[in-house]
Write a structure and sequence with these properties.
Elements lengths: L2 H25 L6 H8 L3 H7 L3 H24 L5 H18 L1 H7 L12 H21 L5 H23 L8 H16 L8
Length: 202
């Protein structure tokens, strides 16, 4: 492939990712259609399959872009905070704010229906792991005696728990928290988990 053709293909990929991202943001992942995306991107339907293997691969790239933006939002909100417990709480509140502001794109990250039979590429798994690594690094300052495996487990547990609280509350489930109390309870929970005793290695 010549350099010019590579540039055109990359330009097309960028347009398709932006078009798909806008469609998901406006109507959710379930309503995403290849014809709508290509029309928005200004290309023929076949253009999608020139740039990507299929619509599923395009969705993975949109999710990767969402993960990048989420990571940037979390990093920006916690930048410059020295006290690790306060830093973790700022990260959790930034996660909540992103989920509220970009709800459909955030939901698409965890919608496994469309991608149920798709093999997720390693580079996307690495993107997903980036959020966990940021939590683990902050936990290291709180519990320096915790080994790496235990720290990764605690980081995954903390992320899963924060995600569950945010998800249930934003979906307005009967046990979810209202907007008046969600931030405060989220901060209290993060503080409780972050300062829990170092787990035994088993």
């Amino acid at each position: 492939m010549t350099e010019k053709r590579q540039e055109k293909r990359q330009e097309l990929r960028t347009r398709l990712i932006e078009a798909a991202r806008d469609r998901i943001a406006a109507g959710g992942l379930r309503g995403l259609r290849a014809r709508d995306v290509t029309a928005d991107a200004g290309c023929a339907l076949g253009g999608l399959y020139t740039a990507f293997a299929d619509l599923n691969e395009l969705v993975i790239h949109v999710n990767s872009d969402t993960l990048r933006r989420l990571g940037e939002a979390v990093a920006e909100a916690s930048a410059g905070i020295e006290e690790p417990g306060t830093k973790l709480k700022a990260m959790a509140l930034a996660y909540l704010a992103f989920a509220r502001t970009h709800n459909a794109l955030w939901l698409a990250l965890f919608d496994t229906t469309m991608l149920a039979d798709v093999e997720i590429p390693q580079w996307h798994k690495d993107d997903q792991a980036g959020l966990i690594d940021g939590i683990a690094r902050t936990l290291a300052a709180i519990s320096p005696d915790m080994d790496e495996d235990a720290r990764q487990r605690r980081a995954r547990t903390l992320f899963a728990a924060v995600h569950g609280i945010v998800s249930i509350s934003l979906e307005k489930r009967f046990i979810g928290l209202s907007g008046d109390h969600l931030e405060g309870e989220l901060e209290s929970f993060v503080d409780l988990v972050a300062r829990a005793p170092t787990p035994l290695n088993r």
